[in-house]
Design brief:
Blueprint (H helix, E strand, L loop, with lengths): L2 H13 L13 E2 L7 E5 L2 E2 L1 E3 L6 H18 L5 E2 L9 E6 L4 H8 L15 E10 L2 E9 L2 H14 L19 E3 L3 E4 L5 E6 L5 H10 L4 H13 L4 E3 L7 H4 L2 H9 L2 E2 L11 H9 L9 H19 L12 E3 L15 H19 L8 E5 L3 H6 L9 E5 L20 E6 L17 H13 L5 E7 L5 H12 L6 H16 L1 H20 L22 H23 L5 H33 L5 H28 L54 E4 L5 E3 L5 E6 L6 E6 L13 E8 L3 E9 L11 E7 L5 E5 L6 H9 L2 E10 L2 E9 L5 E8 L14
Parallel strand pairs: 4-5, 4-6, 6-8, 11-12, 11-18, 12-13, 14-15, 15-16, 16-17, 17-18
Antiparallel strand pairs: 1-9, 2-3, 2-9, 7-8, 7-10, 19-29, 20-23, 21-22, 22-29, 23-28, 24-27, 24-29, 25-26, 25-28
Length: about 850
């Protein structure tokens, strides 16, 4: 780690820590005074906020929010000041370089240095200044290089003083303080990924129902809360809700308010030219456009439709346009492929015509309007087949909808349009939809997005968050990493959950709640809840005493998680209970109950098939779990006086294919028609030890004996990545392939008790070959035997890929014949980048998929 990286990591850590922890760095928010400190709150009295009356509306709004945040933290009244003559006492002075006469005067007088901010994208400086002007002895000045830089600098102060970005969206109360001080000095920050945002998608029935019932529609009143959340998380870019919705047409004030708040708007991967897909069908119904969504037969109507989107974008007036990124290209109607095969010539013509429309409407060259081309699903084939788009267009690569990035750039790093990534926390599609709970490991997000950054995909990051809730935790992480990927080191990753929980719930329970978040993510990552059914995990023996087997161990782990979550929840103050239920207790309880349901169904069916009357007890328990699922959702809808009623309406029980069932359906259970003589309890304890075949050893990947590097590359353990303890990956990522001779190696030592043929299995975290070169390779050997080259080549939508993303594991197997008894070493060499190992199994054949579930106790 370089000194600069270490400094950034420390600063990032302090941003998410309790205020008292950050008192050694300039412009830290602390609970006690120090030499030259600025009194943000003193004896319960907050500083005033100074913002000029002619400041940009985005800056004025953020300043008003800061004043409100100061009131919520201090319980005192923080005033807004708009003129120097009215300023007195301690003030927080906010403004944008070149747009604020007061700020510019302080720069010209030498009280603030700002030359390095000129022309910087969204940079800001926070500095404590003595005697900025008469009547003010000391000020905290937040100066932005542009309007969003000022906004981010303002919200950074709010977050540091104890106001969570999720204060509205997750009912996180402000941490009350009677005294808060900002340490002397100056601090500058700026984003490393230019465009950072999220996509509201798959938003029916939950988000849509909630918004219509609480706001009367998907309108500006609702979007005001979305914009504030995005900006408080230091994001700047939004794809709006789009299932039957049209952001600009549903409420014309939507785009006006977005601009006033400083939010850059776009449209999704299949909605070109600032037009919602829903508008095409509405316009057809109204006779404005006609014909099919087909450029080969209806080009003129499509161009006219697209022209309307660009005209609306530039309708702000005064020679200005609404701040937007224009999606170009074309997919089929309803987010489907545009044509059979790869119609490269057609798509190149479409893009050329779209850019001609942009230039004609704006009166400027097309390259002066930001544009992106989303390489989603089959559209990537056009890229792979050599389709060319102008260099000013951002190429937006996509993942496989399940968290594995499909392709990354291999060309010039100085391409003006740059590259980005469209990522998923939510998806409707195969193998099955996952839209109900948060099922995303931040460790996986980190590994994939760090890979993207190291491969120069750093122009734009956007993530599909479904209904926004319940993706609060991974969305915080995604946007924190996007702000500064270099500061999100493995060490920072390891403390993130505890730091975020401390920021949200305070230091007393922060570490314990962070542990719950990590445990939950590990358990839910083994199989997303929509994929769980009675056949997901094996049961044990069905003798006189029932053995729960692997399924039972999963149930017990989830019970432990739920019980720990309930215990901690009972210890929290009343004002934190709503937030805690939304963020921690609800997902733990809901996931545990789903496993209870299908575990009981599994035993019911197995016992009923043997005419065992104990099946009836499990049928009763399963039906109770099905009812309890609704009770858990009802509790969610009742919290915070019904604020989130409707947000947990996603159907999640009864899947038989990837299609979402029309309603929750109780899985079929069978009752044995004879008297029950020995009814089983509702739950069956698993065996404590899963017997291993003779002479097998299972290594959790982080439990290696040693690593060997080449001076630049080395294997690193990433705790909690994957299904169990963690995984190992070679860092830094984004480097070319290596050879066995380069010896970037990791070793595992074990004792073979009996001689003979020996199997080695590597359980991989699923990843994809982002180069498209035929798979990801690594080599494995035992002792000094010749290495075996193994390749993982998962292809999205294939059966192997579907199994791998369902299990969150892919097994590579090889055999070494006639080993002697005694001590041996398994050696694994890096060949390709993006190879992640989570478990190593070694022993006698046959093996099969051994220990896909939790390790033996």
């Amino acid at each position: 780690m370089t000194p600069r990286t270490a400094q950034l990591a420390l600063a990032c850590c302090m941003l998410l820590s309790a205020p008292v922890l950050g008192c050694s760095e300039p412009v830290s928010v602390c609970a006690h005074d120090g030499a030259g400190s600025f009194p943000l709150i003193s004896h319960g009295v907050p500083a005033s906020v100074f913002v000029e009356t002619k400041a940009d509306p985005a800056v004025q709004h953020a300043a008003a929010e800061l004043a409100a945040d100061l009131r919520s933290v201090s319980s005192g009244k923080a005033g807004l000041v708009g003129a120097v003559s009215a300023a007195h006492g301690p003030i927080v002075l906010v403004g944008t370089l070149g747009q604020s006469p007061v700020i510019d005067q302080l720069v010209q007088s030498g009280k603030i240095k700002a030359r390095d901010l000129v022309g910087s994208w969204e940079a800001y400086r926070q500095v404590v200044v003595d005697h900025p002007f008469p009547g003010v002895s000391r000020a905290l000045v937040v100066i932005g290089a542009d309007r969003r830089g000022t906004v981010f600098g303002i919200y950074d102060i709010s977050r540091k003083m104890g106001v969570s970005p999720w204060h509205w969206w997750a009912d996180v109360p402000a941490q009350r303080k009677s005294d808060l001080f900002v340490t002397a000095g100056s601090r500058t920050d700026r984003p490393k990924v230019k465009y950072r945002g999220f996509f509201i998608n798959d938003e029916e029935p939950s988000f849509g129902t909630w918004a219509r019932s609480h706001f009367g529609g998907i309108n500006a009143k609702m979007y005001g809360h979305v914009f504030d959340l995005l900006l408080r998380l230091k994001g700047n870019y939004l794809w709006p809700a789009m299932w039957g919705k049209a952001f600009n047409a549903d409420d014309p004030q939507n785009m006006v308010l977005a601009d006033q708040r400083g939010v850059i708007m776009g449209t999704s991967h299949h909605e070109p030219m600032m037009r919602a897909q829903a508008e095409w069908h509405r316009n057809q119904d109204q006779g404005i456009t006609g014909g099919a969504w087909d450029y080969t037969t209806n080009a003129a109507n499509l161009r006219e439709f697209w022209r309307g989107g660009i005209e609306r974008m530039r309708s702000k007036g005064g020679g200005q346009r609404y701040d937007s990124i224009v999606t170009i290209g074309m997919r089929g109607d309803g987010d489907k492929p545009m044509a059979e095969g790869t119609a490269t010539d057609l798509l190149e013509r479409i893009v050329s015509d779209q850019r001609r429309v942009i230039a004609d409407v704006t009166g400027r060259p097309a390259d002066e309007t930001p544009q992106l081309w989303a390489l989603y699903k089959e559209v990537q084939d056009y890229y792979d087949h050599g389709m060319k788009v102008p260099d000013d267009v951002t190429l937006l690569f996509a993942d496989d909808n399940w968290g594995q990035i499909r392709r990354l750039p291999t060309g010039s790093s100085d391409r003006p349009g740059g590259y980005g990534v469209y990522y998923h926390f939510d998806y409707v599609g195969g193998p099955r939809n996952y839209t109900w709970l948060n099922t995303n490991q931040i460790q996986k997000v980190w590994q994939q997005m760090d890979l993207a950054y190291q491969n120069n995909a750093k122009k734009l990051w956007i993530v599909n968050v479904g209904d926004i809730k319940p993706m609060e935790f991974p969305l915080s992480f995604f946007l924190d990493q996007a702000w500064d990927p270099e500061a999100m080191t493995p060490r920072r990753l390891a403390t993130y959950a505890a730091d975020w929980a401390t920021e949200t719930f305070g230091a007393k329970h922060g570490h314990a709640i962070g542990s719950l978040l990590t445990r939950y993510a590990t358990l839910v990552a083994r199989r997303k809840p929509e994929l769980v059914d009675a056949d997901s995990f094996p049961l044990g023996a069905a003798g006189q005493t029932l053995d729960g087997g692997e399924f039972g161990r999963m149930v017990e782990e989830l019970h432990s998680l739920r019980d720990d979550a309930e215990r901690i929840g009972n210890e929290l103050p009343a004002d934190q209970k709503s937030a805690y239920f939304e963020l921690v207790l609800h997902p733990a309880s809901a996931l545990s109950n789903i496993y209870d349901l299908y575990y009981d169904v599994a035993w019911n069916r197995r016992l009923a098939a043997a005419a065992d009357a104990r099946a009836n007890g499990f049928a009763d328990a399963a039906e109770a779990a099905f009812r309890h699922d609704q009770e858990i959702s009802d509790r969610y809808h009742a919290i915070a006086d019904g604020k989130w009623a409707g947000m947990m309406k996603q159907v999640h029980i009864g899947y038989t294919s990837w299609h979402e069932p029309k309603k929750q359906t109780m899985p079929e259970v069978v009752r044995v028609a004879r008297p029950v003589t020995a009814q089983a309890p509702g739950r069956v304890a698993p065996s404590l030890v899963k017997p291993e075949p003779a002479d097998f050893h299972v290594f959790e990947a982080p439990d290696f004996a040693r690593t060997t590097g080449d001076g630049q590359l080395s294997w690193r353990a990433i705790p909690a990545l994957g299904r169990t303890k963690g995984a190992v990956v070679v860092l830094p990522q984004g480097r070319p392939s290596t050879r066995i001779a380069d010896n970037v190696r990791i070793d595992y030592d074990w004792l073979l008790r009996t001689p003979g043929d020996t199997i080695v299995q590597l359980y991989m975290v699923p990843t994809l070959d982002t180069r498209g070169k035929g798979g990801l390779r690594l080599a494995v050997s035992i002792d000094d035997l010749s290495p075996h080259l193994l390749t993982m080549n998962l292809l999205p939508d294939g059966k192997a890929w579907a199994d791998a993303v369902s299990d969150n594991a892919y097994v590579l197997t090889t055999m070494f014949p006639a080993l002697t008894a005694g001590r041996h070493t398994i050696k694994i060499w890096r060949i390709d980048d993006n190879v992640v190992v989570q478990k190593v199994v070694v022993g006698k054949p046959p093996v099969g998929n051994f220990y896909l579930g939790p390790p033996p106790q």
